[in-house]
From TrEMBL, chain A:
Signal sequence residues: 1-21
Protein name as it appears in the record: Transporter
Native source organism of the sequence: Spirosoma validum
UniProt KW keywords: Signal
Keyword Signal part of the UniProt annotation: yes
Automatic annotation (TrEMBL), chain B:
Signal sequence segment: 1-21
Cross-referenced Pfam families: PAP2 (PF01569)
UniProt name for this protein: Phosphatase PAP2 family protein
The keyword Signal appears for this protein: yes
CDD domains: PAP2_like_1 (cd03380)
Keyword Signal in annotation: yes
Species assigned in the record: Spirosoma validum
Amino acid sequence: MKTSLTFLIVAALLTPFAAKAQMPHDAIYMGKKQLCVAGMYGYSSWNQYWENSFKRENFNIGTLTTQSVMVMPAYGISKRVNVILSLPYVWTSASAGNLMGQRGVQDISAWLKVKALVVGGFSLHGIVGASIPIGSYVPDFMPMSIGMQCRTATARLLANYKHTPTGLYVTAHGSYGWRSNIKIDRDAYQADDRVYNVNQVRMPNVYDAAVRLGVLRKGWQTEVFAERSACLDGDNIRRNDMPFPTNNMQSTLVGWYGKFQPRHIGVNARVGYVVDGMNVGQSTSYTVGVLYQINFNK
Amino acid sequence: MKTLFSAIILSSLFLSVVACKEPTIDEGILPLVSAATVDADGGAWRTIVLKSATDINVPQPAATTSDTYQRELTGIKNGLLSINPEQNTAVTYWADGGVRRWNQIARQLVAKYNLLPNYLTPTSGTLSSTDPANPMASPTFAARVYALLSVAQYDALVVAWRAKYQYNRPSLETQGVISRVPVLNVPSYPSEDAAIAEASYQLLAYVFPNETAWLKTKAAEHKQSRLWAGACVPSDVKAGEDLAATVAATVIDRAKNDRFSAAHDPNNTWQTGLAKSTYDVRWTSLENPVLAPMLPLGGRVRTWYDSTAVLQAKPSLPPATTSAEFQKALGEVRDMANTRTREQWRIASYWDDGIATYGLSGHWNFLAEGLIRDARQNELRSARTYALLNRAMQDGATASWSAIYTYFVPRPSQMDASIKTATTIPNYPTYVSDHATIASAASTVLAYIFPDQATQLNAQGIEAGISRLYSGVNYRFDIEAGANWGNRIGQLAVDGAKTDGAK
């Protein structure tokens, strides 16, 4: 795969065609044997967070910033079955206090997206994903940790309606995410109002739901969205405690996403803002990406 | 084509659902163990707060031939047949070892209270205020909790052992009762479990008054579980409870006069101490907003071992910040922060025992728990191990606190703000490292009690100290001075242990 890739990337440089970068949460598909590689940079920061439901600042952290670069290839097995991979490198820093920022390769994830049903402008999609940690980062040094060291499996159902003449679309999805237990570098920890005398930590499972409204035309796309994600259970950050992986993290996020890809090269951008949450930072996030599409049919 | 896709999606979803088995935490259920020894001479072991076991008079029990006793015995025998599942769970839970269980409960409460209470946050007024009902389980507080608990348990058990072999009321096993769990083959009167339960409940309720009701329920369940188990009769429980209540009152009396209640320095005298420090740069809080240092008078708390011997080993002032020696030490911390490996980070995390944990002294209690279990120590011997360990650790904490608030040496990050840490920086001066002092006192004591594990224990003691260099919160000289001092204090405990009557 990798060896032929270099050759094909070169070949594809010469070939313009309709571009369609896509994500695990949209109804856009790569055509058969088409590959789109997105390189993205993300910047997210917060200076307030919810300690349980209490919103507070912490002058020993100041503003917490998380940045990432990510490579995200999407490949069309057929025009109705796509595979998406992503691998981010993440680094964190705090503007105040003395806690050391962390950096490293985080978790690799893979998604299989299937267009299961099409009726007129309506379509129904099944998406399954999984991720495994790649880096050996510290999972419980929160909020500086870059990840939680758990394996995940996600099942998502996505419905889309597209009004073809105008390109207007509305997308809704809901997902259930399973998360594995994790191991931490300690003999015991406090969670759920008790002490567990073991180094294994149960991670609450998660769900998410989102609606998106936008316009998708040949070469460009713009949308606004609202996303809700939360754990199914978990405990809350206690007063003046540090966050911990078992926390029931919940957030509601609104944002905008846009893409401009007139030919095989394009750009995308995303802005998100957490309007409400529990046990999470109230982050504002920006992502910009470069998209590059390759057609393996040639 | 469509059906193919549907099949793919359905099977994918199915597979993910299969993988979706909800994971749980398995702390493991270890088999119940029978103790290795009965220690029939235990009643003669040297007590700690009591002058001797004879201080407390345990009344003579009714003869086993009496009607009263026979009715009790019949009650236990009949009760064994009608145990419900919850009772059985309690029986198994407490049969693991009352001393160990109450130690776990203490660790849980320390973790629960090991948070900055709201009344200590800068927005809520004076910083050195206190609320005895809602204490902060800081390192010194935690070490004291474990010490008081295990001392009360130990003294109560010595008294119980003395009465057991004084009156020799036969165990229930010898009277044809088949208990539900292994029961130590010692005279049943007074019940050692009732003594442990009552002493532990009283002591923990004293240090965590808001938990009194919860602790009382635990103690009642513990005592009751021994009747359900067929280990003893109600008059055994009553006698154990009574003697332990007296012992607990004596230990609490000592606690009330150990000067800990003033350790938070209500009159802010620490500022005078700070001004008097002869070190060339003085400590300031790195917290934002600035917080008063933790328990400034914690170094004046009454020690368990000879205070002169404990405190005369206080190390002298470390090299001045202008010296090449200091600059080298600071450079070492800086290099560590910049090049910390994952393994060093693991060690820093493992021994951090910071906010929301049972503390470093709790960590050593956790480690001791495994050793005690493996050595199959009976309740009396377990309590002795914990009492030796925890007195040494509390004295280690007190000792390091006395140096910390004599010298007021600044943390590495105060001297160089670019030094970033792998754990939070404790809000008190750096010299000597309380971590190193407590850990080396602990490893010295445990290495004496468990000589087969001495090599490993000493390595753990050293690792716990050096972890603070790995995390970037202490200089190497803090750790070395603390470790030496801790060894001396541990040795005082070992010397005491050699002559306390236990073989």
